[in-house]
Design a protein that fits this description.
The protein is mainly α. The chain is 60% helix and 3% strand. Strands 1-2-4-3 form a four-stranded mixed β-sheet. A hairpin with a 4-residue loop joins strand 3 and strand 4. This is DUF6541 family protein.
């Protein structure tokens, strides 16, 4: 992928994520900084509504339908903004209008315009660092995400782009086609699928190709996070551009978010959801800071946008919406406590109740559509623990890619934490951030250092995953670190020994934080964008050759070795687009599992021959390595000995077989030596060879095959 193509794709992904929602916020009456930060959450809400509407009306989800929904939302926002401005003008008659960029609880003066713009420019420059690092790590957005979840995310994005099916329960064909209750939030995939409609031939290196679309969305996830958390920090610290710059540098250098979750899993929808949390908190702060002279109309717009944005967060990943709600609840409590009088308290309370209406309505609707028990798997799942309680507590502060970087972040965070308590003007704005630090920190320690059913009562909604809590914990950590920079470098800091010491400490910490930038590219590749285990360089060659040779039919593949990526890359349909679950028959059906266990007897076992022809299987591809699973498919043993499977492309990483025609009415025949006449009881182990041999002999069984 050329540099120009990479740049165009990144611009398109950023515009797709930010512009629709930002335009809605501007139309509703928000200032441009708030609109840019809150915009992504509103964009997700637009996509969620668009997916529901297109599914209900049997209209394909595509750029045209998405644009229609966005224009409708923009019109509604414009009407809301006009009504709010008229109402506020009447309520404020005779009163001095409040300045938008000033926080009600700060006594500091607004910095000169020139200084503000310099700070804004520095924040913008720092926000591009994650995109640059991620672009380099993914070799110009061309590297395939290597781990388990990426199989599904790539296939789901391609499926929506091809079919236009983006309803709540429409993704079963790319994960569990025989499961009538399958559900996975599809807003991320629906949004990313729009990038596949850009001009181009659809090949992996084109503007509208894969994995470029996934990687571009991941890259701009980091950009939006840095922008959002920087603006949020500046607002909570009384409009301080210094705090915003400090937060931007810490966010751009943080490892636990966004980089770790973009590699581990990769948790792409979850990462996109966490990215919009700062925008939601910015809206929540506007609702919480009601004063005696604040008109009710001033709260209505941010409250409604907060509710709609939270619905958008729910649509991309319900656990993110719950995490955001925890912090917003802290904002509501802090706002009620410090509100000066009954009327402001009622205004704050009414604002948050109003915000809960659209968010609650969307959540209730999604739950009504889904079958009961659809989320039970998350509640029952538990990851193994690899550290004790002490180790969990220590790693809760390990947000950098190196020990030096983490120490710098922690010192700044502690300074900000002290300032949040000691500085009167910051107590209300930062109270919810401190609350989030405590809650997410406790949940992280529970998920990393404790095991048991009682732990899952608190952590199960986030899949009992310490990496998800580490990502959530990054939000308050970065905000408090930015506040720490501002606290260590107060105005007039050039005077006095203590002030100079604070400046020196802040600079040293920021340099330590920035030093982690040198390691990010290497770490990202190790964690999810290297040469395997899903798709090695040799496998990629065979996958691309299959894309060129393909002339119809379905490809039988190993669901665990990464060959499923041929569907996302080249739109070649595969039998198993995602890894298998604990109950594969319930997931994909007995017919597919018969081929999984017995394709090697094609042409010899009439029932297998019939199944191959019925399902139009014309290709078989065998890769190497694996992302997990019980071992190689039993039906892959001895494929090289089957005369009705002709190798058409092969190297050390993969072999592609073409299925030759066979008379469907042939009698049962004994397969050649090397092909078991019955399915072995144990699956062959995962190896680095596309030649699959049987495991050590044991009594025969069918394992769901045909015997």
């Amino acid at each position: 992928m050329s540099i120009l193509t990479v740049a165009l794709l990144l611009v398109a992904a950023f515009a797709l994520l930010v512009v629709p929602g930002a335009a809605i916020c501007l139309a509703a009456g928000l200032r441009w900084r708030d609109a840019v930060v809150a915009g992504p959450a509103l964009t997700l809400a637009v996509v969620a509504v668009g997916c529901a509407v297109t599914a209900a009306t049997d209209v394909a989800w595509a750029p045209a339908s998405a644009a229609g929904v966005a224009l409708g939302a923009l019109l509604c926002a414009g009407l809301l903004g006009m009504a709010a401005r008229v109402s506020a003008r009447r309520a404020r008659s005779g009163r001095e209008e409040l300045k938008e960029d000033d926080d009600d609880t700060t006594a500091t003066a607004t910095p000169p315009a020139r200084r503000r713009w310099v700070g804004d420019l520095v924040v913008v420059v720092l926000s591009f660092l994650p995109a640059v690092q991620f672009g380099i790590a993914t070799r110009g957005l061309s590297a395939i995400p290597q781990y388990w979840d990426a199989f599904f995310h790539g296939a789901a994005t391609r499926y929506i782009a091809e079919t236009g099916n983006a309803g709540l329960t429409d993704l079963a064909p790319v994960s569990q086609p025989e499961n009538p209750h399958f559900y996975y939030p599809d807003t991320y995939h629906a949004l990313t699928s729009l990038l596949l409609h850009l001009p181009g031939d659809g090949s992996p290196g084109a503007l509208n190709g894969m994995p470029g679309a996934l990687n571009a969305m991941s890259a701009v996830t980091g950009v939006v996070f840095v922008l959002g958390v920087a603006v949020l920090t500046g607002r909570l610290c009384g409009g301080s551009r210094l705090a915003a710059v400090g937060a931007a540098l810490v966010a751009a250098s943080s490892w636990t978010f966004p980089f770790q979750v973009l590699g581990w899993g990769p948790l792409l929808p979850f990462a996109l959801g966490v990215t919009v949390i700062p925008g939601l908190l910015l809206l929540g702060d506007r609702v919480a800071r009601a004063r005696q002279e604040t008109a009710g109309a001033d709260v209505v717009v941010p409250a409604l946008l907060l509710g709609v944005g939270t619905a958008g967060a729910w649509s991309v990943h319900p656990s993110v919406a719950l995490a955001a709600a925890i912090v917003v609840a802290g904002q509501a409590m802090a706002g009620l406590v410090v509100a000066p009088g009954l009327r402001p308290r009622l205004t704050v309370l009414g604002g948050f109740v109003l915000a809960a209406l659209p968010a609650g309505a969307y959540a209730a609707w999604t739950l009504s559509v889904l079958a009961a028990g659809v989320g039970d798997g998350a509640a029952d799942f538990s990851w193994p623990r690899h550290m004790g309680v002490a180790g969990a507590v220590v790693t809760a502060f390990d947000h950098g890619p190196s020990a030096v970087s983490s120490v710098g972040m922690t010192v700044l965070m502690v300074a900000g934490l002290v300032a949040a308590v000691a500085v009167r003007q910051w107590r209300r704005p930062l109270a919810a951030i401190v609350w989030a630090l405590v809650v997410f920190g406790v949940l992280y320690v529970l998920s990393a250092g404790f095991q048991g059913d009682w732990v899952r009562m608190f952590t199960g909604y986030w899949w009992d995953d310490m990496y998800r809590f580490a990502a959530l914990l990054a939000v308050p950590t970065v905000v408090l670190a930015g506040a720490g920079v501002r606290a260590l470098i107060p105005r007039g800091s050039g005077r006095g020994t203590a002030a100079r010491a604070g400046v020196v400490l802040a600079v040293v910490c920021l340099v330590a934080v920035a030093s982690g930038q040198a390691l990010l590219v290497h770490e990202v590749r190790i964690w999810g964008y290297g040469a395997g285990p899903a798709v090695t360089a040799e496998e990629r060659i065979v996958l691309d050759e299959l894309g060129e040779l393909y002339d119809g039919g379905v490809v039988l593949n190993d669901p665990f070795d990464g060959t499923t990526w041929v569907y996302a890359l080249h739109s070649v349909p595969v039998m198993f687009p995602s890894p298998l679950s604990d109950d594969p028959v319930a997931q994909v059906g007995g017919d597919r599992m018969a081929l999984y266990t017995s394709i090697n007897r094609y042409g010899f076992d009439p029932s297998i021959t019939h199944e191959v022809q019925r399902q139009d299987v014309r290709w078989v591809i065998v890769g190497t390595k694996s992302v997990g699973g019980p071992g190689r498919p039993g039906g892959f043993i001895g494929l090289q000995y089957n005369p009705y499977l002709r190798p058409v492309a092969e190297n050390s990483g993969a072999i592609l077989y073409e299925v030759l025609p066979v008379d469907a009415d042939h009698p049962p025949l004994i397969p050649p030596p090397g092909i078991p006449p019955m399915t072995p009881p144990e699956q062959p182990p995962n190896t680095d060879s596309p030649i699959v041999e049987a495991a050590p002999t044991a009594p025969a069984t069918t394992l769901g095959g045909t015997g």
